[in-house]
Amino acid sequence: MKQLILSIGACMVMASTAASASGINSELHKLDNTVQDREGNVYLTVSIGDQVWLAENLRSTQFQDGSAVRSGAVLNNDAANLLTYGRLYNWHDVSDERNLALRAGELPPMKIGKS
């Protein structure tokens, strides 16, 4: 758990000092508890019981089939908010059958207690 908190803290520091999302993605990709979406965005994951969850908000601009989402706004239209808050999607995109979120099969296998 201490390692997970340290990892999240380190990522927050990296987020505040990195110039671009791609720089953050390359740093996050070095961690064990991450998953990558079809666009190359890398997300931290956390195990809760026997389930694996994303530890941060989505930044995707595409559905799982590659088509563009209709919403996906960045808070205050400020690119600096993308890494902190992710994108804000409307209900039409969230509930779309093309699936905005990562599929369960794309999450890495993780053992309970691994951080």
Automatic annotation (TrEMBL):
InterPro entries associated with the record: Fib_succ_major
Ranges where the Fibrobacter succinogenes major paralogous domain occurs: 46-101
Metal-binding is among the record's keywords: no
Source taxon at top rank: Bacteria
Signal peptide: 1-21
Keyword tags: Signal
Entry protein name: Fibrobacter succinogenes major paralogous domain-containing protein
